[in-house]
Predict the 3D structure of the following.
Amino acid sequence: MAPRLEGKVAIVTGAASGFGKGIVIKFLEEGAKVVIADLSTEAGELVAKELRCAFVKADVTKKDDWEQLLKEACKQYGQLDIVVNNAGVTYTNKPTEDVTEKDFDLVMNVNVKSIYLSTNVLVPYFLEKKRPGCFIQIASTAATRPRPRLTWYNASKAAVINATKTMAVEYGPDQIRFNAVSPVVGSTGMTHLFLGRPDTPENRAAFVTTIPLGRPSTPADVANSCCYLASDEAQFITGINLEVDGGRCV
């Protein structure tokens, strides 16, 4: 059987580590060409060399950087088919009244404005070329099952899901699909921020008790879900939020 993403070109943001790197690995295994986008030049170049794909240093809150990503994808691989908006941030789990304006601006800019900019720059490309497109946003179970002390992070991810569903309806007639994937907390560089305490086996175990399948999400879990949504197997799927959460949101 042919690789599921053969002949497709993808941009994956925040791709130098964590879920993003896992998505890139899976996409490459399934035949896609990938442009890695990350704010860290050192980490991005290292992963690009390791996985043999293109890298663009990009701040997802800057329109110019999105324009450069599109330019690079077309220059290196001749086209663009898939966009995975994986880059995201949070602030340390804390009482809502202690959240600073800087904290608020950070999660809204990186988690929400980046989606606005990616679609503002890339949707016109798909419309002009009259080619199908696929956007996948990495949201969070925090959007649909919000817990205390991460209010504005939760709200930013809820905005991502709402915007995804709205654009799925708006651009469906143009064959541009929009879907979201919502992982439960996994093992990434931000895990300690979600927990609000050191990422130790003991602290993680307390959270895992809330997940029926008994473990955190992994990059492979998220990558497998993204691969399906990006593939032609999901060509009739748009506007969904796929919870990759071991049953936490039930």
Summary: The mean pLDDT is 95. Residues 201 and 208 are 10 Å apart (CA to CA). Strands lie at 9-13, 33-38, 54-57, 82-85, 133-138, 176-183, 241-244.
